[in-house]
Design goal:
The protein is mostly helical. The protein has a single domain, classed as LemA-like domain (de novo design (two linked rop proteins)). 81% of the residues lie in helices and 0% in strands. Helix 1 packs antiparallel against helix 5. The relative contact order is 0.14. The mean pLDDT is 88.
Length: 189
Amino acid sequence: MGAGLITLIVIGVLLLLVIGFLIATYNGLVKLKNRVEEAWSDITVQLKRRTDLIPNLVNTVKGYAAHEQGVFDAVTKARSAIMDAKTVQQTADGENMLEGALKSLFAVAEAYPDLKANQNFLQLQQELVDTEDKIQASRRFYNGGVRDLNTKIQTFPVNLVAGMFGFQSREFFEVEDRAAVENPVEVQF
């Protein structure tokens, strides 16, 4: 074997290693991106489920406390903000609005013992608690995926490949009052 052949073999092996690294890195980034998108989809499904529950809850409370229109309007406005959200930040802002509005709604319900005993209201409460738990779990899964993707994109040498193929960091789903969100809306009476 001549020196020229050995040089070609070494260059070929190095080229294969570089191509292998690029392929593995690209595929890893795609996998993380898809995991983040799946997690965001899970969040939107749970938010939709909750926004579907809210009109029934509001109407049930309205039957007992029709004079609390300001509370009902706040809940409706917050629900609309979530449904109309296009970005993670807009969704988080809507979540903050809804958190406060639901607390006000349940404070109103507290003043009506007959409402607290209403089976429909109790069922809606339970569904809301279940949905809040699922939203929390979905948010944690999403933020974990975002953390993994962002870390991968920002570390060397993967950041070079990520930049070449246009991978971008994602926003965390954060809310203003993290303690309030980590403890779901209290709906037990």
